[in-house]
Amino acid sequence: MTQVMHHVILFLSAFSCVFCNTDDIGISVTPSLDAGPINWKQTITITCTWTPGKFKFADILVGAESIFNHPVYADIVNLEDPEARLYFTQDPDVGTAELIIKDITKEDESQYTCSVSRIGPGGSVTLEVLEPPTAGVTGLTATPDFTSVHLTWEAVEGATNYNVAWRAAGTEAWTDVDVAGTEHTFEGLNVASDYEAKATASNPAGIRDGIEPAETTFTTKDNRPPHPVGGLNVHEAAYNATTITLSWELQDNIDENRIITGITAAAVKEGAAEGDPAVVIDPQELGADATSVTFELPGAGDYVFTITTNNDFSAGVETSMTEIHTVKETTDPPTPEPTTPEPTKKPTTEPKKEPTTAAKEEPEVEIDIGDGGETIVCGDTRAIQPLPNTQAILKCTKHDDSAINPADIVWSFQAGDADAVEQTQIIASEIGEVANDNKSSILTIKNVDANSVGTYSCSAGDNSTTCTYTVSVTTTDSTGGVAHFALSGFLSLAILLIALF
Fold first, then answer.
1. What DSSP character marks residue 33?
2. Residues 441 and 406: beta-carbon distance below 8 Å
3. Do 180 and 160 meet the contact criterion of CB atoms below 8 Å apart?
4. Do strands 366-368 and 320-327 pair parallel, antiparallel, or not at all (unpaired)?
């Protein structure tokens, strides 16, 4: 329909039919207005119908303005383009006309009236358009419990529906629900787990483009007790130290995201004899991330240290780890009486005799270990027979005139016909401990027993002559006599010290 046709319609309308009835003009809208407002972005069709006749042409009035003169619609309608947002077409021979409006918005709200030349204006409809909310959800708040979360948010103007959803942190799939109010509770979550939540506002027109959902994160409560600490270890500064430090790690709790609210460190000194009361040292309450504690102990004795992890759900659950430690009586390791007699010596006016028990006692000797004049001094007792369950100390000492470092002296151990064990293996397998002072290398053999016998050697390099010590065990047989065992095996902890220098 062009502007020319529009003027023709106006001319013909001037000759109205006296006997024509405006009720003969019908109007309808698709989709129907019976369900309420038209949702935005839809396509609607306004249809006019009338009884066809000579010189009867249709026009649609928007308000009181012809669609062909409308300030917004005229240019679009006059394109006569079916793909345009507005398109008007009619068939006077049939008596029908259609106005198609695409992507309808609130700007299209108005009264639309069908007008037919020679009849005049007839039926009309009023369009109401429902648009989505113009704003998104605000104030989304999550209140988690152990296996549920309660979500609340602020009401949004124009919204009749809210889509709320949750998912486990780091996953893709959402679990959602539509609700009319401003709160919802989700059930069936896992304890001590991280989640994400979101909410969007909508109405029957949908969700407006470009408005993002409100989002939040939360962690459900943890009703699990903590794990005990791991790697509990006692560190002592000296042989009979009473300042004792313990350390541990919390990795098991960290790996499972278990909550620790505090750590309790306790120490108890056990009774020296049966029936003696135990002495309780004041416990220490530590922070949730503590990994060490230091105790000042009242003196020598056996102590039981207990480290306990705590939270609101640890009552009645074993969350403790215990370590036992002994503080010795003396500062220096004790030296027991020799198990073999001292070598017999002649008066000072006569030359010294060789020891009568050469296999078990040898005089102190100086051994040349290099061209640089370096020497090493062995102990005067080379054959050792300690009592079972005692401790033995072997020592190799550099000569006063030697330039070697005691740390250069290394030890080895051979049990029977087995292959020799190097110093690193002695330490790693806890056969013994090696320490150095400013003159000596000291090997401490732990818990000497029937399996802790063999040959122990020390040297200071490839050019060194070796000091060798033989260790056997003295035990009492079933008749009360003394039996000597020389068996191969590994070493463990003990108490009695035998000085060999």
1. G
2. yes
3. yes
4. unpaired
Tokens of 477: 């047989």
- 216-248: per-residue pLDDT in tens? 999 999 889 999 999 999 986 666 788 999 999
Tokens standing for 385? 């027979």
Residue 478 is encoded by which pair of tokens?
């079933």
* Cβ-contact 445, 471 below 8 angstroms: yes
C-alpha to C-alpha distance for 454 and 464, rounded to whole angstroms: 21
Contact 114, 48 (CB under 8 A): yes
What six digits make up the tokens of 500?
């060999």
Amino acid letter for position 53: G
First-to-last C-alpha distance (Å) of the chain: 124
Q: Give buried/exposed letters for 16-25 (b at 16+ CB in 10 A, else e).
A: ebeebeeebb
Cα separation, 307 vs 265, whole angstroms: 5
**pLDDT at position 215:** 97
- CB 456, CB 413: distance < 8 Å: yes
Of residues 399 and 142, more confidently modeled: 142
pLDDT in tens, 180-223: 999 999 999 999 899 999 999 999 999 988 999 999 999 999 88
Question: How are strands ordered across the β-sheet holding 292-296?
Answer: 230-236, 243-249, 292-296
Q: Contact, 163 vs 237, CB < 8 A?
A: no
Higher pLDDT: 325 or 367? It is 325
**DSSP 3-state assignment of 16?**
coil
In this prediction the pTM is: 0.46
* Integer CA distances (angstroms), 296 to 242, 272, 273, in order: 6, 19, 22
Closest CA to 154 of 174, 176, 133: 133
CA distance 356 to 362: 9
Helices (H) and strands (E) in the chain, counts: 4, 36
What pLDDT is attached to residue 6? 52
In the chain, the amino acid numbered 314 is: S
Residues 280-297: what's their mean pLDDT?
A: 94
Place of tokens 């390791």: 333
State which H helix or E strand residue 295 sits in. strand 292-296
Specify the pairing of strand 383-384 against strand 432-436. unpaired
pLDDT at 348 > cutoff 80:
no
